[in-house]
Amino acid sequence: MSTPHGTGGAESGPNGLPTRLAAVAAAHHEGLEVSVCCGRPGAPPAVAHQADRPHYAASVIKLAVLLAAHRAGALDRAVTVREEFASAVGGTYRADRADDNDDEPWRHLGREVTLRRLCHRMICSSSNLATSVVVEHLGLERIAEACPEGLVVRRPIGDRSAAAAGLTNTVTARAALRVLQALLDTGDPRLLRPLREQRYTQEIPAALPPGTSVANKNGWVTGVLHDVALVEPPDAPPYLLAVCVDGGPEDRARSAIHRIAEASWLDRLRLAPAAPGTAGPEGEE
To answer: How many other C-beta atoms are found inside a 10 Å radius of the C-beta of residue 107?
Structure first.
């Protein structure tokens, strides 16, 4: 069976019919490698296109760091903010202020700050310094335990020696969806607050109608752009959407994410219902 506009065989959605999201996810996006996973909280994905393809994870790992801090019961602990940390390959590395997205944690060097506050900046402003402080306190092993299958964290962000030694962090679209689902499953609405207060909303949120409630975390480096979000339409149940893109310039990658997010919105009523008894976005069934 042929598919329109070279969609490459769109996967089936509800009732066995190709959805607009499936068609757009599987379309040719100017040579980009695009992975998509989308579905209701607690339910199997309604659309999955190359959902198990590994991508460089970038800042998506910060969701696993947040989850690990919660599971360790550590969010209300106060720790000293510093800029030198243990490397995954021995020795130390220093966080690079010029390569960070957030000045706020740097103003607390040498002072004690709670992990909750650091995690908030780690997510809403994608602070690399805050991430390194939290990772150092928890340890990579504990963070790895919080990662669903498909999300691999082998080094801290900014650990150039470990990167040069071949240690890298990878994520799949399915794993990005699962780690966001795991945060929902905690039943603690405070964990979603930094995603709801996200400063970087140029990807999935920007493609949805103004005023739509979205909790998202994106990640980017040269040639890589990802976003994973909880979308809460006013006229449909909430849904989760993860899009991972690599292989092209940022503007083309963002355009691909916008097309996919727009299609997810058009299909918001067609996605399968959430699993019975699944915790909702605010921890209520």
So the answer is: 8
Distance CA 176, CA 36 (A): 10
- Nearest Cα to Cα of residue 256 among 60, 50, 39, 64: 50
Q: Express each pLDDT in 100-151 by its tens digit.
A: 989 999 999 999 999 999 999 999 999 999 999 999 999 999 999 999 999 9
Give the helix/strand (H/E) hosting 185.
Answer: helix 173-185
Nearest alpha-carbon partner for 6 in 21, 33, 26: 26
Strand 78-80 vs strand 55-56: parallel, antiparallel, or unpaired? unpaired
Structure tokens that stand for 59 in this block: 């800042």
Average pLDDT (82-104) is 94
CB atoms within 10 A of CB 266: 13
The tokens for 62 are 């910060």
In whole angstroms, how far apart are CA 121 and each of 46, 63, 103, 230, 232? 32, 12, 10, 19, 23
Q: Look at the block and give the residue holding tokens 């915790």.
A: 279
Tokens of 47: 């659309």
**Contact residues for 229 (Cβ-Cβ < 8 A; gap 6+):** 180, 195, 204, 205, 214, 215, 216, 217, 240, 241, 242
